[in-house]
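User: Can you fold this complex?
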Amino acid sequence: MSAKLRRRAVLALPWLWTVLFFFLPLALVVKISLATSQLSVPPYSDFFARTNGAVTGIRANLDNYGLLFSDALYVKAYLSSVKIAAISTVLALLLGYPMAYGIAHAAPTRRPLLLVLVTLPFWTSFLVRIYAWMGILRPGGTINTALQALGLIDEPLRLLNTPGAVYLGIVYAYLPFMVLPLYARLEKQDPALLEAAADLGARPWQAFLRVTLPLSLPGVLAGCLLVFIPAVGEFVIPELMGGPDTLMIGRVLWNEFFTNHDWPLSAAVTVLLLIVLVVPVALFQTVQARAEKRL
Amino acid sequence: MNRHRISFTTAALGAGLAFLYAPLLVVMVNSFNASRLVTVWTGFSPRWYGELFADRQILDAALNSLIVAVCSASLAVVVGTTAGYVFARFGYFRGRAALSGALAAPLVLPDVIAGLSLLLMFVALEQTFTWLPGRGLLTIVLAHASFTTAYVAIIVQARLAGMDREAEESAADLGAKPFAVFRAITLPMIRPAVAAGWLLAFVLSLDDLVIASFVSGPQSTTLPMVVFSSVRLGVSPKINALATILIVVTLALLSVAAWMGRATLKQK
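Assistant: Here's the predicted assembly.
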């Protein structure tokens, strides 16, 4: 076998894989978003108009998209998903930055242990972690029981099933994704830069604002995108920790699919979600490509 | 001033770690609570573990999850190692950016997107070729492998990038065929990365609720699906016991992985 042929044979596996499990499924989502929901197996109309088995044309309609833009529920769900994801991302940054900074400035021998401690919860089941917070926040849960025992409150506070609980859940679930890229940037920074800033009369906070922070911005961007992108489409956290008023598009999609069995509309919701995410995902790919080039 | 700043970051780090671990500890403690009310402590009791192991539905789902996790992780390791090798050793080829983007996309894209799009693909395969009729554990295995492959590829690629090519090149100069070089030289050197990739794929598969819900058939319920439908109804002591077991098993698996990594480092 020639070297060229051999190369092609090895390349065929990942190509076949991505075509089958990425490009083809996405194309099908677009196709079925143009179909009409009907009672059949599978529950949508045929994309092709057929006469005696021969394809005579295509039957595509934009009604599903029309509904998404005319019904206020869907527009609201998209907007509130972006808002909830953005607020959670900022909160994760505010908590994650000092943590990453603390690890990067810890003694080099202690850093691996601290990194393991930050990533360990990510390995334990996602559902278990969300479930743990439900037990703490619910009426009759750990916090309410403690506050009532101390006599600080008479009635249990409503902590679970609120927007605050959803922010908490997202920050909790995705915090390692914020800390790791930040740490990777902060750890590479030359400590001599801070010494030089101090020699030139900068106070620590000035040195932080004018040296450390600007140099860590690529890490900030990567961390924010790693939290923001999956959070926009999050289903489990708003479903279990949010209330009936916590509208997120992942929940809408789930209900259209599992409760209403409207596959074409679910597909249209997915296509619009992908469009919402195109810009952040492209941005993320650029950041990654640049980081790879520097290596 | 400097001292003050360091104590602030240490405090932030401590608070952050407490935030990460406190909820897990609360679940573990509550799982031994004799009371059905979960948070009102009435005494130590292992009774919920007994009830958990008497629950056939949970045991069946756990077995399904284990089968799916082992199969999908093994499949992901084969494809992911190939992909990682291609990216680390093939240099430029046409469509490299598209391939790496498509492989990495499932790492960040929301699960609901992957779940629905993979389901539509399986339905199309069933209609066109009558493949995978009815869907079941096999479709979950394929769906899980489709997103865990990316994690394996990244780990293997990173390992290969940090490895010098001298040994591979010498073997090739001495006349070894490329596949023989891969099997005799490359594979043993990347074995820790492959093992770590398998473990990560295994854990991610065991944990997935959303994608499995979309692509599963009526007879193929996995553990997260059972936990989710139970948790939706509220907090239950049995789930506390299950959560505790899951936390302990994950930590044990990770310790083994870390210990294996150390052992291979020492060998070098």
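The longest helix of chain A spans residues 72-104. Chain A is about 75% helix and 5% strand.
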